Amino acid sequence: MELPDEPTADIALTLNGEAIRARVPLRQNLVDWLRHGAGLTGSHVGCEHGVCGACHVQVDGVVVRGCLMLAVQADGAAVETIEGATSSGRIRALQDAFFNRAALQCGFCTPGMLLQAAELLERNPDPSRAEIREALSGNYCRCTGYHAIVDAVQAAAASLRA
Amino acid sequence: MKPARFDYARPETLSDALAILADGGAEASVLAGGQSLMPMLNLRMARPGMLVDINRIPGLDAIALADGVLSIGARARHAEVLASPLVRQAAPLLAQALHHVAHPAIRNRGTLGGSLALADPAAEMPACVTCLGATIVLASASGKRRVAAEKFFLGVYATAIEPGELILHVEIPAIRPGWTHAFQEVSRRHGDYAMAGLALALRRDGSRVAEARIALCGVESATRRQAEAEAALVSGGVGAACQMLGGLDAMGGDEVTAAHRIHLARVLLRRAVGTED
């Protein structure tokens, strides 16, 4: 992707609260640029066709697939990755619950799970287990079998309501 | 797995977009939500010469209800349509069906117009707009054109859209007093492609079905009004309508056979007739 004649575009965006400018290949997707261009490797690349959810990032306040959006489309947007969500503390309760409930093993899916679960809890502070499963239906985990993840989201919701 | 090279245009106005599409011809692809186009680019199943990104054009995502017509802009995201009180009020079928459309992160980005333009036979939105008698409003550099949903879906990934045309918005007649809507679907996992789905609009006279509109997804290669089953439902009840569904031209396949899709369509019709909202 770094070929000398690769067509590029200049973008300016807010990334984890910081204004930055970058030159990106037109065909580079957002998650590849975040990892290779911005050096933020917390967003993971799994299937690259919108199935697994490992690449989830937040763009202008909503969670999206980082592999199904071009980096050039983030021009002018506010992007938050798992790094930003972690340092701001806004997903602390979920992270604690995932740790306490052993809701991860290899951790590959965890950043995407956390961002999607955070969006659910913002919209619905007291979700049922079925609602949690529906919200996370687009996030694949190949280790845990999901039960511990659903437990953790429920536990985080309870701690946030307390 | 990275896309092949393409030119990229991000027009700020509709007229600029239509001019670019007119110049680009068949080489140009519209990029709206990208939730189907981007996978096809990543897999290099699609290699358009140019992407025309319509995400900066103002007003293409408006949702409005006036004079008994619900108008939904082509770039309205699935999540916005799902959350819209106007949609719940005027077209509860869409809100029911959207729960089955992929997953939250896809719905945050994917658009109604994109789903209609793609015309995946398993997709829910084409069946819904067909069931509800919607009109699809298209624009090109030479003007606007209106196409009834019933004449819009022509086959697998095939629609009435001509090169250079863009969907502007969809007009859906608002639900009328006495009518109810139901959407039912079977898929392997939540958010997976439908093995079969059924959209139903119904008016009852007492306990008797007086009028019915039915469209399917995931069964035939292009969604359409199921006129024979609708007439049978009114004249002979759900058993007669299920009988008529035996005549469906169902898609086959190693995983889900045509006979199984017809079986599922019957199951879904029985469920839907019991659960309209």
From TrEMBL, chain A:
Domain 2Fe-2S ferredoxin-type: 9-85
Any Pfam family the entry gives: Fer2
InterPro entries, sorted: 2Fe-2S-bd (IPR002888), 2Fe-2S-bd_dom_sf (IPR036884), 2Fe-2S_ferredoxin-like_sf (IPR036010), 2Fe-2S_ferredoxin-type (IPR001041), 2Fe2S_fd_BS (IPR006058), Beta-grasp_dom_sf (IPR012675), Diverse_Oxidoreductases (IPR051452)
Keywords assigned: 2Fe-2S, Iron, Iron-sulfur, Metal-binding, Oxidoreductase
Record protein name field: (2Fe-2S)-binding protein
Source species: Roseomonas populi
UniProtKB/TrEMBL annotation, chain B:
Keywords: FAD, Flavoprotein, Oxidoreductase
Stored Pfam families: CO_deh_flav_C, FAD_binding_5
Every FAD-binding PCMH-type domain range: 1-177
SMART domains named in the record: CO_deh_flav_C
N-terminal signal peptide: none
InterPro entries to which the protein is assigned, alphabetical: CO_DH_flav_C, CO_DH_flav_C_dom_sf, Diverse_Substr_Oxidored, FAD-bd_PCMH, FAD-bd_PCMH-like_sf, FAD-bd_PCMH_sub1, FAD-bd_PCMH_sub2, Mopterin_DH_FAD-bd
Alphabetized PANTHER family for the sequence: XANTHINE DEHYDROGENASE SUBUNIT C-RELATED (PTHR42659)
Protein name per Swiss-Prot or TrEMBL: FAD binding domain-containing protein
Lineage of producing organism: Bacteria, Pseudomonadati, Pseudomonadota, Alphaproteobacteria, Acetobacterales
